Amino acid sequence: MTTNRFLTVVALLAAVSLMLTACGGNASPSEPLALTIHAQDIKFDVTALAARVNQPVSLTYVNEGAIDHAFAIDGLADQQKVKPGETATFTFTPHTAGAFKFYCTMPGHEMAGMVGTLTVTP
After folding, report:
1. How far apart are CA 11 and CA 87, in angstroms?
2. How many whole angstroms separate alpha carbon 42 and alpha carbon 93?
3. How many angstroms separate the CA atoms of 30 and 33, rounded?
4. Judging by DSSP bridges, how do beta strands 48-52 and 115-121 pair with one another?
5. 13 to each of 2, 4, 60, how far by Cα in Å?
6. pTM
7. Separation between Cα atoms, residue 82 and residue 46, nearest integer Å
8. What local confidence, expressed as pLDDT, does residue 12 receive?
9. Ranges of each domain in the chain
10. pLDDT means over runs of 10, the chain (122 residues)
11. Which helix (H) or strand (E) holds 22?
12. Residue among 118, 113, 90 at smallest CA distance from 41
């Protein structure tokens, strides 16, 4: 490889590296993170979800149970009621890092164990 070709390749790699670094950091992802949670009678199929700060989240809530369920994350996602056999999809964007409790808001369901944690990282 000639010296000029070598220097050109190095310069291109450096430019690409700088562009990728500039795209990282606190930039907001343009596409929502797709999450799905299934409500079964008095339990969720998952109790831990993860997202990033300023990343839009599209959450699909599927009620596989025989009774009504409702999903909420205080301060992030308003209550979404879903009848048996139905599905609701909604979006929200967490703006701060931390651990946020999600739960079924139907009376007694949270205390029976329908609760989990959404962890939001920087």
Report:
1. 51
2. 27
3. 9
4. parallel
5. 17, 14, 40
6. 0.74
7. 17
8. 40
9. 33-121
10. 46 40 46 94 96 97 97 95 97 97 97 97 96
11. helix 3-23
12. 113
Alpha carbon distance 57, 98 (integer Å) = 15
Rounded Cα–Cα distance for residues 57 and 35 (Å): 7
- Neighbouring CB atoms inside 10 A of 15's CB total 10
Please name the fold of domain 33-121: Immunoglobulin-like (2.60.40)
**What pLDDT is stored for residue 43 in this prediction?**
96
Instruction: Please state the length of the chain.
Output: 122
Token match 């343009």: residue?
30
Residue type for position 87: T
Residue 26 tokens, joined: 């606190």
Q: How far is CA 85 from CA 37, 73, 80, 114, in A?
A: 13, 22, 14, 18
